[in-house]
Amino acid sequence: PEHLYLILWKAFYAVEAHDRRSIRSLGFASDSDFAVLEALYSKGALPVNVLGRKLFLTSGAITTAVDRAQRQGLVRRVADPADRRVARVELTEAGRDKARCALDIHFRNLATALAGLDPAEQRQLAELLRKLGKHAADTAGSELVPARSR
Hints:
The relative contact order is 0.11. The protein is globular. It is mostly helical and 150 residues long. The protein starts with a helix and ends in a 12-residue tail after the last helix. A hairpin with a 7-residue loop joins strand 2 and strand 3. The longest helix has 24 residues, at 2-25. Helix 1 (2-25) crosses helix 5 and helix 2 (31-43) crosses helix 5 (93-114). The chain has helices at residues 2-25, 31-43, 48-54, 59-71, 93-114, 119-138, and strands spanning 46-47, 75-79, 87-91.
């Protein structure tokens, strides 16, 4: 298992490095700035706290990222019609345009990183990673092997 984990870890970091270079080349100061636009573009308007959970960001980090995007005119906060205490974040027209353009380029950049596998291999890898991820999540609460006492 340790060899497989090491291979998975190295592959993840190599692809992630490619991903980060792509995001920086698009003019985003941080991954979270890009992630906010991508999430809102694909999911639509979301409450700030839901957006933060989807992006694995703390409440402070998501507020900072949304504030930056709002100052740039890319998003706006609107009251949720079902609960006016909740602020939803939505893309502005400029935000939609920037997200559409950035995602098109970014996905082409990622395709370059993933081109080491042909389409059938990419589908197979996706299936295997879903299976692995589900199993790891399902067993996350299971008992661990105890550390040996010295």
